[in-house]
Write a structure and sequence with these properties.
Residues 88-215 form the GST C-terminal domain. The protein contains eight helices and six strands; from the N terminus they run βαβββαββαααααα. By secondary structure, the chain is an alpha+beta fold. A hairpin with a 2-residue loop joins β5 (57-60) and β6 (63-66).
């Protein structure tokens, strides 16, 4: 099995963490990245497999997949134990919805902050930070009676952990306003699979002179 990702790919990191959690052996291929040019040159397998020309891409024998969530679903079917979706249908549906919300509701606010780091008072940046903070409050409420977002540890946690990592990088970090969420992040960071992937990303950030979020310091 081969996973093609990038050193600053949030979506690729989700897949990597899931594969490590499941103990799946895979070859990791990192696409070259620079702050000025992005992912360039594009990996030929990425161009061939993904019409959106983005990582991650998975190749397993004759099977070729793109999209982090679709890749994860394959990993879950391939290696059901340990499960990264809850067993009960309702809990599983909630976990899937939370994973979707992390990617499609929360993360777009972080994307809006990209390129606005030097102008935090820009109205667009202020609006994005406010929306991220509101999402944190929602997740704080979700964690009122549980250790993980869907009850048991799941892919929903992996997705939001990586998304909030980028939120912290781009000026929308969690704060003391959401103590349960901060405790959740500590539990997540303590997991070996998360430490391995997030630590590699922290090391890469340090190597290119980018700031490393406080909660990742020491992992690289």
């Amino acid at each position: 099995m081969k996973i093609i990702s990038g050193p600053l790919s949030m979506f690729g990191a989700k897949v990597e963490i899931a594969a490590h959690e499941k103990g799946i052996d895979f070859e990791l291929v990192m696409v070259p990245f620079s702050q000025r040019r992005g992912y360039d040159p594009r990996h030929p397998d990425v161009l061939r497999i993904n019409p959106k020309r983005q990582v991650p891409v998975l190749i397993d024998g004759d099977l070729e997949l793109f999209d982090s969530t679709q890749i994860f679903e394959y990993l879950e079917d391939l290696q059901p134990d340990p499960a990264l979706w809850p067993a009960h249908p309702a809990a599983r549906a909630i976990a899937r919805q939370l994973e979707h919300c992390s990617d499609e509701i929360y993360f777009p606010h972080v994307v809006r902050l990209m390129g606005l780091e030097a102008t935090p008072e820009d109205p667009a940046a202020q609006a994005a930070r406010a929306a991220a903070a509101e999402y944190y409050r929602r997740m704080e409420h979700v964690l009122a009676d549980r250790a993980f977002l869907a009850g048991t540890y799941s892919y929903a946690d992996i997705a939001f952990y990586m998304a909030q990592l980028f939120g912290a990088r781009k000026g929308a970090p969690m704060t003391d306003e959401t103590p349960r969420l901060l405790a959740w992040r500590e539990r997540m960071t303590a997991r070996p699979a998360v430490r391995k992937v997030a630590g590699a990303m922290a090391g890469y950030l340090a190597s290119i002179g980018e700031a490393v979020p406080d909660f990742l310091r020491g992992l690289d």
